Amino acid sequence: MPSSELRLLLHLAFKWDLVTGGGVTSRYLWHPFLSAAEIGQRLDRIYRDGPAASVAVARAVLQAAAERAPAEKLQYLEVEEPQTSRRSFDLNLYNAKLHVRDIQSLLLRLREQYSVRPGQFQALYDQIKGMLLGHLAGGVHRDGRDFFNVYYGATGLPRFNERLQ
Length: 165
Known about the structure:
This protein has five helices and six strands, in the order E-E-H-H-E-E-H-H-E-E-H. Helix 1 (about 35-45) runs antiparallel to helix 2 (about 50-65) and helix 2 (about 50-65) packs antiparallel against helix 3. The chain is α+β, with helices and mostly antiparallel strands and about 160 residues long. It has a six-stranded antiparallel sheet, covered by helices on one side.
């Protein structure tokens, strides 16, 4: 089976909305051993109707990470919710050993895109710029809005890929 077709259920989440009484089931699917090109293609599919700026930032971070660690050592997940239009990803960057400061220019692009006040951004950035860059997560939320998250600071490095080899 080509690596681009391999996917494993990593998490199954049941999420309830206490206001409406509704709920969804989220499936977190791990796609091990993808190349940078394959991850990029998957990002393009997730953002097919979303803002070009988000996919450009995600691809640029992927490229920076792939210059420090083989993309196959990065861990890429996608989230499926069959009942909704959600399309999202999570890219684990720990093996690349990037720091938040390594993607400063990309974070500034996100600051502009999401209209974060410059002073508010700078106050947080100054506190975290030396921390490890952990994950990127983003895509299209179940309500159709674009989202993008940057996780940082954790030091534990999960080693899923090594267990399958």
